[in-house]
Design goal:
Helices cover 24% and strands 29% of the residues. By secondary structure, it is α/β, with parallel strands linked by helices. The strands form eight sheets. The chain has a seven-stranded mixed sheet, with helices on both faces. Strands 18-21-24-27-30-33-36 form a seven-stranded parallel sheet. Helix 2 links the parallel strand 4 and strand 5 (78-84). The two termini are 47 Å apart.
Length: 467
Amino acid sequence: MEFQVVVLAGGTSKNLVPLVSKDVPKALLPVANRPVLSYVLELLESSNLRDLIVVVEGQDNAVRIGGWISSAYVDRLHVEVADVPEDVGTAGALRSVAHHLTASDILVVSGDLVCDVPPGAVAATHRRHNAAVTALLCAAPVGGHSEIGGSGGKDKAKKPGQHNIMGLDSTKQFLLNVTSGADVHKDLRILKTILCASGQMEIRSDLMDAHLYAFKRTVLLDILDQHPAFHSIKQDVVPYLVKSQLLSSLKLEVSANGASQMEEGWNDGVASQIDHLWYTQRQMGPVSTFDDLVAGFPHDFFSIRRVHKCCAYIASKNKYCLRLNSIQAFCDINRDVIGDASHLSGYSFSAQNNIIHPSAELGNKTTVGPNCMLGEGSQLGDKCSVKRSVIGCHCRIGSNVKIANSVVMNYVTIEDGCSIQGSVICSNVNLQERVVLKDCQVGAGYVITAGSEYKSESLARKEKSTQ
């Protein structure tokens, strides 16, 4: 498709502590016992996009992620891993690799995306309209439905600001307005030029920006170069492109002798002049459309022309699309990939609708329910119960242990009589006898002493300073 592909794999996200650490970058967090980055790489591979630039924040993270890619995708993908400074932002990450971008169009995708929408469909829309940017929009998930992660995660998911407010034209192909979801309770300011040019706008708050974009390279690089303060693709670059896609030319009488002045731009000055014209014309009769507005003025008094096109590809509602950008999302995606979205897992499910590795061992009267996963080399003692949970590789689980709606990563030891509900247990954790956890997150290598009970807690070792 002659697209160059950039995967933004990030680093260690603060939103995912204690799941991430200096040893476990975000891109390697497990989803159904596979690094989340693998879902994007295989989505791209399925669209025959095999030549990739993977951008990682932090040199150590880049080494870890690059090493994993080299071993997992040898002879399958050609990947160049580029490290950028931490906290540089998505726009800064693109700015850092700008000298590598040579194709006419660039496909940019977030490395935390778990999705079954073909990137080729977005690319085809972009090429068909010769757009400056085309964004993949998906149905926004309904917050608060996950059983994993507990009530605290539910409350967070329901807060405003999770999704942008989108303005679309009548064909739902062009983006006319993008407003941050954080402003959902504020008055929206929409330029008259947009409304005049489009005739009507549909406002949507049920769509999620999936962080998969097609950009025209020259436009993208010009913006990154001219606006060094732009930090985020979603919050800065795309809204700027949407806002600046129309250029207004307005001729204003400024003197009695007929001299005129041309004001050009898409700023509030032009919008205020349109408001004035609208008000003036309404005094002379009913005005309902832009054509009515300009009917009483000279032919060349007012004109709008499109500078570039901003397009949207809206995925159908039966497509799966979520980003692993919070603990709640981590839990939701793990639940979905072994449940309703099992086609994304890449695994074959048993007649009991679960995945139990042939090398795993189950004790007497131990049950592993549907929508569960048990990884390679893991062992469960007698009379254990596992419901709607993912258990990683080489875990040692004692007798009379109950695990429900949880994610347990690799090399975890859980001793007799423990009860775990709605929790995430990171790798190399040791839970001693009779530990009770509800709605908790336990960081890598943590030890919980026998008989302890925790509810809605985040437990992690203090990382040693590198200084």
